[in-house]
Amino acid sequence: MSLRDELLGFFMAGVEAASAPAVLAGLLPTGTPQGRTLVLGCGKAAAAMAEVAAKILPGDIEGCVVTRIGHGPRAPTGGIEVIEASHPVPDAASREAGRRIRELAASARAGDRVIFLVSGGGSALLCDPLPGLSLEEKAGITGHLVHSGAPIAEINLVRRHLSGVKGGRLAAAAGAAVADMHSFLLSDVAGDDPAAIASGPTIPASFEPEAALAILRRTGWPVDPRLENLIRSGECGPVPVHPVHLVANGLTALDAVTAAATKAGWNVVMVDPQLEGDAAETGRAHAVLAMDYAARPGRHLLLSGGELTVRVRAEDGAGGPNLEYLAGLMAALPPAAPVAALAGDSDGIDGSADNAGGYFDAATRAASDQCEAALAQNRTYALFRQTGGLIFTGPTRTNVNDIRMVAVGELP
User: Tell me: the pLDDT tens digits for 217-264?
Assistant: First the structure.
């Protein structure tokens, strides 16, 4: 087996461990409610979670979930409708999903059971702009914040101040009359704050209009009096208290990678399971760490997770945070360093391209000046296409952030 295939096998073991069939089935309620079961959800794992719910939950089931285009159902979802929409910038299907799911939530009555299935990506996919805010304006704000390199927590804070379903508003729409309500969350955020996952459609969050306005102004989005008044007026009403279940997170995947790699004879070093920050600069920092381990006997696998960010410098560039991380790593390594690496997003999509991530080893490593040129123009996709280092998995229908592996030492 090649080193590339071995590392990709570890990556896929992590993905499988965090998949809906692996983590959700044993947590769903088993008793039959007096009324119907209403299943509502959003995110890149929403269709896979809906398949599990349709198979496991008893009684009369109906509902709707929204997922990313291409991440739709591969098995029956029964009475649970699945809408596919755009990500990371919302589109008309996102708005229709927001309207449909909010209306279904509002239809819940005493005796009904309401199940919320929430995963990363739901912030863009479930879009219900406040009255007075057009879809185009909200999409423009989202796109601007993504390209600015703002942390995902800041992007989601702004989103929930512009939404009729985020920050607990979706659960609030179902109302206090529903006593049998559950949220099942698959986390893609550092720290696993339920209010931050998909901007917390079922979780009450603090109302922070000044912070939202400050983020917009700092990143250069024009804030006119109308937008300012909208943001200040969007406070959420009471959110029903209900059980919230965290079904999987980045550590779920990283633990599975660790187990598989340890069994294969690697010394696994957990660098940080919840990294945040600039992707290329993190890669450069990991090059220093890799060279430290290169001086030690044996073979080592430096493992990290979390979500890194890319500052868009060229609008015509292509390449997500995992490719930028790998390019930064390659740029900082000495030419003969005994280092190979694979980094990918657990959802199978690195940024907005069609690849999950990338790989390099001694035979496919790009020169430092090539890496720096690619980073300067956000053209890491072209760089890895040239080296043959792109990794394609297709949509995995889970989302627990990135899995980064740096192999160091006695390599094949």
Answer: 999 999 999 998 888 887 777 888 899 999 999 999 999 999 999 999
pLDDT, tens digit (0-9, with 9 covering 90-100), for 339-358: 999 999 999 999 878 999 99
CA atoms within 13 A on the CB side of 117: 34
Token pair listed for 254: 């990283």
Contact 306, 270 (CB under 8 A): no
Residue ending a domain, among 204, 223, 248, is 248
Q: Do residue 154 and residue 85 come from a single domain?
A: yes
What range does the domain containing 46 cover?
23-248
For residue 83 the two structure tokens come to: 């809408």
Residue 245, beta-bridge partner list = 184
Q: What is the pLDDT of residues 114-126, one digit of tens each?
A: 999 999 999 889 9
DSSP 365: P
Q: Strands 267-278, 299-309: parallel, antiparallel or unpaired by DSSP?
A: parallel
Residues 127 and 257 in one domain: no
- In whole angstroms, how far apart are CA 144 and each of 133, 159, 211? 16, 12, 17
This prediction has a pTM of: 0.90
User: Residue 379: is its pLDDT beyond 70?
Assistant: yes
Q: Are strands 299-309 and 339-345 parallel, antiparallel or unpaired?
A: unpaired
Residue 17: inside a domain, yes or no? no
Same domain, 233 and 328: no
The whole-number average pLDDT for the span 166-192 is: 90
Say whether both 291 and 232 belong to one domain. Answer: no
- The reply to whether 66 and 119 lie within a common domain is yes
What the block records as the tokens of 99 is 């309207």
For residue 10, what are its two tokens? 């570890």
Q: Which letter, b or e, does each residue of 192-224 get, where b requires 16 or more Cβ atoms within 10 Å of its Cβ?
A: bebbbbbbbbbbbbebbbeebbebbeebebeee
* C-alpha closest to that of 194 among 236, 129, 243, 141: 243
Instruction: Report the relative pairing of strands 357-360 and 390-391 from DSSP bridges.
Output: antiparallel
Which residue, among 48, 77, 68, has the nearest Cα to 125 in the 3D structure?
A: 68
Tokens found for residue 403: 């899995």
**Cβ-based neighbours of 332, under 8 Å, separated by 6 or more:** 283, 284, 287, 288, 368
Q: Same domain for 319 and 231?
A: no
- The residues, ordered by sequence, that sit 6+ positions from 214 with a Cβ below 8 Å of its Cβ are none
Residues 242 and 291 placed together within one structural domain of the fold: no
Rounded mean pLDDT, 164-168: 89
Tokens of 44: 């890149």
Of 233, 248, 263, the domain-final residue: 248
Residue 80 lies in a domain: yes
